[in-house]
Hints:
It contains four helices and no strands. The protein is mainly α. The chain has one domain. The protein is elongated. Belongs to the FliE family.
Amino acid sequence: MDSIQSIARSAEALTKPASVQGRGFQDALASALQTTSDLQKESGRLSKEFSLDNPTVSLEETMIAGQKSNIAFQATLQVRNRLVQAYSEVMNMQI
């Protein structure tokens, strides 16, 4: 449940205007990357615990954590691709 709340907070922070949140793009991006990393670590931990037959970890919980991690990674990858594309376009502009 903690990871869902952190995703919601990150999404909320990314949708607020910079003047409202008082943070820059770099901070928002770093926060999103940290959230993605945390989700991947949690997914790996749950997967390991499930494979070790830990009775407190369910298959459903493990699969949901894996999907959250995958979605966060795909979103991060898309943002990176768009940033690289924008950078390339700026560098190719005629002055």
